[in-house]
Each structure stands twice: as structure tokens, then as C-alpha cells.
Design goal:
Pfam families: Pyr_redox_2, Reductase_C, Rieske. Belongs to the FAD-dependent oxidoreductase family. Keywords: 2Fe-2S, Apoptosis, Electron transport, FAD, Flavoprotein, Iron, Iron-sulfur, Metal-binding, Mitochondrion, Oxidoreductase, Transport. By secondary structure, the protein is of the alpha+beta class. It folds into four domains: 111 residues, Rieske Iron-sulfur Protein; 178 residues, FAD/NAD(P)-binding domain (3-Layer(bba) Sandwich); 114 residues, 3-Layer(bba) Sandwich (FAD/NAD(P)-binding domain); 66 residues, FAD/NAD-linked reductase, C-terminal dimerisation domain (Enolase-like, domain 1, 2-Layer Sandwich), CATH 3.30.390. The chain has twelve helices and 39 strands. The strands form ten sheets. Strands 1, 4, 5, 6, 7, 12 and 13 form a seven-stranded antiparallel sheet that branches. The N terminus is likely disordered.
Length: 582
């Protein structure tokens, strides 16, 4: 907005002293070889030198100052988006002090002015990421980058913001990181930190180690052929190519000496000799280990399951191929899971027909409850999705090797050119069976609040673990969500460095269908009632999930920022009673 101030406020971008000294010194001035192992053969790639970027605020031409308001224009606890001419900032007043940071969440660009301000941090209204208003640092996820921080000056009752034009335009800041000291001295087959899995948990672990000044070798390995990417987009934005959804560019891994071994599968872990054994026979010794292998999608077990054009969506190539094959054709989706429903929503505009087969009577019943599930189902039906509920697939029929029909146990036969299977997943932990690492009856790795397993020096994170959830009296739970994987990775890294940090984050997730989002915070497992405010038919509602007298989770549609508000209350350790929301 444009607004004529009676008094002005100045903001200046400053790097904290600690960050500045980190930025100006490089323990790794020399180029060092990065070693990628592919199919059992080591290849050396020599890196060009990466001079550390000089402080962007040393360039006087880049810095601008603007008066943005009168000191009395903002009350305590208020936020305002202010325009500095070449970009915007978020101005915040809390406890009598002014702060200025980037105005957009670096994750997907949500306007933070519509978020929730609470005790020195602002929470994103869309996906729940939290940022410290004094430093701009990211404190809860999703996303990897922090906010730029700008300097605020008060002169003659006016508030001024002094800012770097570059920071105003990019609206994100990557925290300073250490580099590896003399990689060239390393033995190819040993590393200080080995990370198995290159999803959000693995990447955040590696980045956190570097942010904390760790300058020894870090190796990540993945069965995937790609560097870490934004996995939720596989079902929400199915024709995205790997480079469009990568979480960090290739240069980032080179600059900070994070080695990534792609298409490398670990077959066993020998905890006695601290060694990971790869499928191709290669062995790598480690000092600290993070297991973040995620889940493996369940396949169908019916007759004809090996027919062509039946997909689990595991990689960008799977999603891209489904979109290509589904265009103007008949699609059958098995399972009204988050993945199944998002794929159905994405394909409706492209496919000739979309049918969804599900064992339950209503989609999302166990997660969102029957009433919300029915409202979502109605939205899908009005978008031409046909549901076949309370049945399952008995056979996949082919013609010339390719899928032609899906036969249901109810006797119904559906025409199908493509089938997407979304019937859940199992933890990818089979390779740990004989390892001595504690795994529960469902295959989840059991960790404590510091993401430590029962084996010293071995940590686990992400979808493959159960951990004590503070929010539910430290009940051991599995929370297979993107935000939680980020936080697990961060906590694991801090405890590899002996920080003694315990996890206490509130789970937060979202699903997107037909341009609408459902946001969700808390852990509603075992809820016994749902209190709904708003209008389900209009898809503008908030649902509070209660267990006995306590609110354990909340979901909303078109009701921002209520879910972020509830997440902040729960994060503060406060209890919300059922009577408070009725």
C-alpha cells in the first residue's frame, strides 16, 4: 500500500557480527576435488575456486533508505507491509521495539503480514514456517532459507528502513555456512558424517551442520538419480521437471562441500565397524550416521499387477509419465490418500475421465473425519471425479501388455489407460533388519527426542521414524509430513554436534486440490469428536479435532490464518479446551 507518513521510520540491512566474521573467512580458499561414486567407480570432479561473496551491504549504491511511517502508526503486536520503492519489507512492532524483515515467506512466497505474530516470531499463514523477527532466522519449517533483516531507525518520531535493494528483491537469505577443510586429504571410503537419504531431513541435516561451523566431510547418498527436490510437488504439480523443483542448485552442493552420491543404495549397516555397505559392494566408514530413507509406496497385490502403465509416484519421471499418458485418456486411481486425491485433482483437466477406488466410505475419514471428508468428496464430484467406495481392485486386465481395464471386487469393470496406486507406504528400513538398530513391529526406526537411535552416533529422521511427540505427552508417533522431516534433520544435526536439543515442534501439513488448500496442525490420531465452525458446503470452515476435553488438531479451508494461530498456541505449550472452540 502507499501511505503518507506523518513521521518516518528507517530500516537498514545489517549482518550480525557473528555472521559477518563467518562470511569473511573461508577455511577452504583452495579448490578441492569432490568425489562422486557412480556404479562402483569413483570419479573426481575438481571444483573451481569459490571466493566468498563480499558483504552485499558494503556496496553503497545497493543500499537505500526510506521513511515508512510515524512511530504511533503501529501498536504493539502489529505488522505492516511497507513499500520502500524498489521492494517491500515487513515492519513489526513488538514490546515497544520496531523490527523489519522480508515480507514474503521464502518457502512459497506467502505474505507474512497475513501470518501470526507471537513472542518474537512470525508464522507463515500457509504452511506454518516460523521466522525470528529480530534476526530473520528460520525457526520452524518448511523451507530452507531465512528472511533478510533490515535496520530500523527512529528519528524525530519517524520510522526509517535502511535496506539492500538486492535483499528487498530476493526476499530470502541463506544462512552463512562453513566449508570443508582440505577435502583432498580424505580417504575415498570414509566420511565423518554419512547421510542415507536425500529428502528434506537429509538435506536440512547437512545444511545445519555447515551452518553450525562443522568443517569435516559430509556425504549424502540416495537411490534417486536427482539432487534433493520438493517431493510434495510430485502429486500437486505433476508435470514439474526435476530441475524446476530442486531444493538447491548443483553449485550449492559444490560451494559448501556437501557430496551427494546418486543412484546408490545402502544394502546393510555394520554398526560394530561403523560401515555402510552399498548394493554394489562399495563400503564407506562413518563417524556419525543419519538414516533418512523415508517410505516405499505399497504396490497392488492383485492379479495382473505387472501390467504396463500402472504407477506408484516415487520420482519426477513417474509423475511426468503419468501426465503424458493420461492426457485425453481414462485414469483410475486406487486409494483416496493425500497422494491419490491430489493426483486425481491434478489430472481432471487433462484426462478424459478420472475414477477413484477406495476401501473406506469417505475419503480422509480417519484423518479429517466424516463431515470434512464428505465436503471434499462433493468438491471432487463437482469436478467430474467418479468415486467407487467401499471396494478394491481384484484384477488389472491388459491388451497387448498394456492396461485396458480395472476390475473391482464389486464386479464393476472400469476402462483404464493409466492406473496410479496411492494405497499407503511402508518405511524403507528393510536393509537395517540385522543391524542391531531398534526397529518396531511396523518397521519404523525408534528414536528419542534428540533423534538418536539405540546405537550411539546413529540418528534417524523423517518418514521412517517414530519419535516422542511433546504435544501428545511424548507418545511415540510417526508423522510422515514434509515440515516434520525438515525439523527432524535439524535436531539430528544439532545433536551430532552435542547440543542436547530436543524436538518440540507442532506438526503442520497442507494439501492442495482444485486451487484450494486444506491446512492442518497438531496430531489428531484417535480424535473422538470434531467441532466445526463456518460452512462446509461453501468450503469455508475450520474443524477442531478433540480427544476427551482437549483440542489435539485443527484443519481449515479458506479460513487463514486460523491453523497457524492454533499452531502457535500449541507450540507455547498451552491447552485448548473443547468448550473454548464450541
Amino acid at each position: 500500500f502507499l501511505f503518507v507518513p506523518a513521521v518516518e521510520v528507517k530500516i537498514e540491512v545489517v549482518i550480525p557480527e557473528k555472521e559477518r566474521s563467518k562470511e569473511e573467512m573461508s577455511p577452504n580458499g583452495k579448490a578441492s576435488p569432490l568425489i562422486y561414486k557412480v556404479n562402483g567407480t569413483a570419479r573426481h570432479y575438481h571444483l573451481e575456486e569459490h571466493p566468498i561473496a563480499s558483504n552485499p551491504y558494503h556496496n553503497p549504491k545497493d543500499v537505500m533508505e526510506a521513511s515508512v511511517c510515524h512511530v504511533k502508526d503501529l501498536e504493539n503486536g502489529q505488522m505492516r507491509e511497507v513499500d520502500l520503492g524498489c521492494g517491500k519489507a515487513l515492519l513489526i512492532k513488538e514490546s515497544g521495539e520496531f523490527h523489519a524483515v522480508g515480507h514474503k515467506c521464502p518457502h512459497y512466497g506467502a505474505p507474512l503480514v497475513k501470518g501470526v505474530l507471537s513472542k518474537g516470531r512470525v508464522r507463515c499463514p500457509w504452511h506454518g514456517a516460523c521466522f525470528n523477527i529480530g534476526t530473520g532466522d528460520i525457526e520452524d519449517f518448511p523451507g530452507l532459507d531465512s528472511l533478510p533483516r533490515f535496520q530500523v531507525k527512529i528519528e524525530k518520531e519517524k520510522v526509517y528502513i535502511r535496506a539492500s535493494k538486492q535483499a528487498l528483491q530476493t526476499q530470502r537469505r541463506t544462512k552463512m555456512m562453513a566449508k570443508c577443510i582440505s577435502l583432498s586429504n580424505y580417504n575415498l571410503s570414509s566420511t565423518n558424517v554419512l547421510i542415507i537419504g536425500a529428502g528434506a531431513a537429509g538435506l536440512v541435516c547437512a545444511e545445519t551442520l555447515r551452518q553450525e561451523g562443522f568443517s569435516d566431510r559430509i556425504v549424502m547418498c540416495t537411490m534417486d538419480r536427482h539432487l534433493p527436490y520438493d517431493r510434495p510437488k510430485l502429486s500437486k504439480s505433476m508435470d514439474s521437471h526435476p530441475e524446476q523443483i530442486s531444493l538447491r542448485p548443483k553449485e550449492f552442493f559444490r560451494t559448501y562441500d556437501i557430496e551427494v552420491l546418486t543412484e546408490m543404495q545402502v544394502a546393510a549397516v555394520d554398526i560394530k565397524n561403523k560401515t555402510a555397505v552399498f548394493k554394489d559392494g562399495f563400503k564407506m566408514e562413518y563417524n556419525k550416521l543419519l538414516i533418512a530413507t523415508g517410505n516405499t509406496p505399497k504396490a497392488l497385490s492383485c492379479k495382473g499387477k505387472e501390467v504396463e502403465n500402472v504407477f506408484n509416484i516415487r520420482m519426477p519421471e513417474d509423475a511426468n509419465r503419468v501426465v503424458k499418458l493420461a492426457t485425453s485418456k481414462n485414469v483410475v486411481i486406487v486409494g483416496a490418500s493425500f497422494l491419490g486425491m491430489e493426483v486425481a485433482a491434478y489430472l481432471t483437466e487433462r484426462a478424459h475421465s478420472v475414477s477413484l477406488v477406495e476401501l473406506e466410505e469417505v475419503p480422509f475419514k480417519k484423518f479429517f473425519g466424516e463431515r470434512v471428508g464428505r465436503a471434499v468428496m462433493k468438491m471432487f464430484e463437482s469436478n467430474r471425479v467418479k468415486f467407487y467406495m467401499q471396494t478394491e481392485v481384484s484384477e488389472l486386465r491388459e491388451q497387448e501388455g498394456k492396461l485396458k481395464e480395472v476390475v473391482l471386487k464389486s464386479g464393476k469393470v472400469l476402462r483404464a489407460d493409466v492406473c496410479v496406486v496411492g494405497v499407503g507406504a511402508v518405511p524403507a528400513t528393510g536393509f537395517l533388519k540385522q543391524s542391531g538398530i531398534n526397529i518396531d513391529s511396523k518397521g519404523f526406526i525408534v528414536v528419542n527426542k534428540m533423534m538418536q537411535t539405540n546405537v550411539p552416533g546413529v540418528f534417524a529422521a523423517g518418514d521412517a521414524v517414530t519419535f516422542p511427540l511433546a504435544l501428545r505427552n511424548n507418545k511415540k508417533v510417526n508423522v510422515p509430513h514434509w515440515q516434520m522431516a525438515h525439523m527432524h534433520g535439524r535436531i539430528a544435526a544439532l545433536n551430532m554436534l552435542a547440543h542436547g536439543m530436543e524436538i518440540s515442534t507442532v506438526p503442520y501439513l497442507w494439501t492442495a486440490m482444485f486451487g484450494k488448500s486444506i491446512r492442518y496442525a497438531g496430531h489428531g490420531e484417535g480424535f473422538d469428536d470434531v467441532v466445526i465452525q463456518g460452512d462446509l458446503d461453501e468450503l469455508k470452515f475450520v474443524a477442531f479435532y478433540t480427544k476427551s476435553d482437549e483440542v489435539v488438531a485443527v484443519a481449515s479451508m479458506n479460513y487463514d490464518p486460523i491453523v497457524s494461530k492454533v499452531a502457535e498456541v500449541l507450540a507455547a505449550g498451552r491447552t485448548i479446551r473443547k468448550r473454548d472452540v464450541e
